[in-house]
Amino acid sequence: MANDIRIRNAGGTWVVRAGGAVLGESSRALELSEGDLVPVIYFPRGDLAMAFLDETATRTTCPKKGEATHYSIVLKSFTLDDAAWSYEAPKDEVAAIEGYVAFYPRDEVAVEQI
Fold first, then answer.
1. What are the structural domains, with CATH classification, of the chain?
2. Which parts of the sequence belong to the DUF427 domain (predicted)?
């Protein structure tokens, strides 16, 4: 694994909400820590209401993790553009996050342990 990246079971149950809607709840979430950055919670797709997520054309590349696909969160009254990301084919060192989705920290999106 990349020297400063650690992936572990996040422990407990995690929920992600946006605009009052629960997008997912999981006891299988992963926590990815990278250097001095704030740890990121990754949710398994099977624990998310993927109908709320629309893949966008945005792609970003991380030299340690690979290419990320981005998603907008589509709610009844508004859309949060590029609010989530996933590594469809991550580098071998971080293969554990394949099939998982993470959410950008923003006022309209809450990721919390319950």
1. 5-113 (2.170.150.40)
2. 15-105
End-to-end CA distance of the chain: 29
| pLDDT tens per residue across span 6-51 | 999 999 999 999 988 999 999 999 999 998 999 999 999 999 999 9
Residues 6+ apart with CB under 8 A from 60: 67, 68, 70, 85
Burial class of residue 73 (count of CB atoms within 10 Å of its CB; 0-12, 13-18, 19+):
buried
- Is this model's pTM higher than 0.85 or not? yes
